[in-house]
Amino acid sequence: MSRVCPVTGAQPGFGHHVSHSHRRTKRRFDVNIQRKRYWAPTLGRHVTLTLSARGIKTVDQRGIDAVVADLAARGVTF
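Now predict its structure.
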């Protein structure tokens, strides 16, 4: 599963683990991605999205129909 939120566009960041002796090794800061299932009244079916925590808040604020319309306009399948 890709670690990218389709609503916010959040994707992993990269950086370094820095030890006590200041040795640096590469690490990855993953996005908090959750699978969420919504009922979309305009489609008449359930839609499962993989969203970040901020994306879930965006859906709660704007409504699932507006978000699904934006995703469909961009060509995202669900």
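The longest helix spans residues 64-74.
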